[in-house]
Design goal:
Layout: H1 2-14, H2 23-36, E1 38-39, E2 55-56, H3 58-71, E3 80-85, E4 91-96
Parallel strand pairs: 1-2
Antiparallel strand pairs: 3-4
Helix pairs in contact: 1-2, 2-3
Length: about 100
């Protein structure tokens, strides 16, 4: 599922809407966050949104990716957080351009 999201995000970043965005930065941020942050769901069914240091869940990953893209020079108005519902009705929060 997430590989498809990366491909879709890369396609969006390559589109005319996002001409000035550097796709290599997107790929670097994606790889960096996905390999350095351990997935850990919020406790007791709560939904706490935070930028993770070492672990977090879907929205935490998305918040960190958004932060790093902005720090890399992407315009914050071009980056959105979106909710995706996959085939098993699980909700995922992802960064969208």
């Amino acid at each position: 599922m997430f590989k498809k999201i990366l491909i879709a995000a890369t396609m969006l970043a390559s589109s005319s809407i996002a001409n000035s965005m550097d796709v290599s930065v997107l790929e670097t941020v994606q790889r960096q966050v996905n390999t350095s942050i351990r997935y850990k769901p919020d406790r007791d069914g709560s939904d706490i949104w935070k930028i993770p240091n070492k672990s977090g869940d879907c929205e935490d990953y998305a918040l960190l990716k958004r932060k790093l893209l902005i720090e890399a020079g992407w315009d914050e108005n071009d980056i959105r957080l979106i909710l995706v519902i996959n085939d098993t009705d699980k909700h995922k929060k992802v960064v969208s351009m």
